[in-house]
Write a structure and sequence with these properties.
The protein is mainly beta. Helices cover 5% and strands 41% of the residues. The protein is built from 2 helices and 12 strands; from the N terminus they run E-E-E-E-H-E-E-E-E-H-E-E-E-E.
């Protein structure tokens, strides 16, 4: 059975629980998706189902050939499977895969923040504002280690590009599922900006 689906982040809102407590939730348009291709361990080396989601206005020839007879899908993503029994090309996967109370892992591309310093990027404290310091309040400080090893170690936290990378938020609670409109509400925040493409999977950990 396929344990995941492709979705689109709609934005955040809030809803009230039965006990009157307000919860911040993220609305996701999840599916419907169509199984485009099945990959098997015997041929590709792993089991997976390739899903199609979203309508494309224009497709290149290679994509048209791959999707021949299936529809014009803009996004294709793979969901790993334990086995491919009972799954065939053309099957539909929708938000009814989930129900309230489920735990899900959601993968998306985080918002890009551009070039950021160490205070913003890694929560460094910065330098002291006294003792003669001038324009050093948000500096990273020393990056070297003297004669030995005499170089900057790989992985040293320094200023650089921040965000715009794949992030997975794990064990988020599904608050509500609307099967008619293919919308689900998930507790808390998830990676990415509005209209970002997401992979939603049932949490296995």
């Amino acid at each position: 059975m396929i344990q995941g689906i492709i979705g689109r982040k709609l934005g955040m809102t809030q809803m009230f629980r039965d006990n009157g407590r307000a919860e911040a939730v993220t609305a996701i348009a999840a599916g419907p998706c169509t199984v485009i291709q099945i990959k098997k361990d015997s041929k590709e080396g792993y089991n997976a189902a390739q899903l199609g989601f979203g309508e494309a206005k224009k497709l290149k020839s290679a994509r048209k050939g791959h999707l021949k007879g299936m529809g014009d899908y803009r996004y294709l993503r793979e969901i790993r499977l334990a086995d491919t029994k009972g799954i065939k090309v053309g099957d539909s996967v929708d938000v009814s895969l989930f129900e309230s109370g489920d735990k899900v892992d959601i993968t998306g591309i985080s918002k890009g923040k551009g070039f950021a310093g160490v205070v913003k990027r890694y929560n460094f404290a910065g330098g002291p504002k006294t003792h003669g310091q001038s324009d050093r309040h948000r500096a990273g400080g020393s990056i070297g280690a003297g004669t030995s090893p005499g170089r900057v170690l790989k992985g040293t936290r320094m200023p650089g590009h921040m965000g715009n990378e794949q992030v997975t938020a794990r064990k988020l609670e599904v608050i509500q599922v609307d099967s008619e409109r293919n919308i689900m509400l998930v507790k808390g925040t998830i990676p990415g900006a509005k209209n970002g493409i997401l992979i939603i999977k049932k949490s296995g950990k």
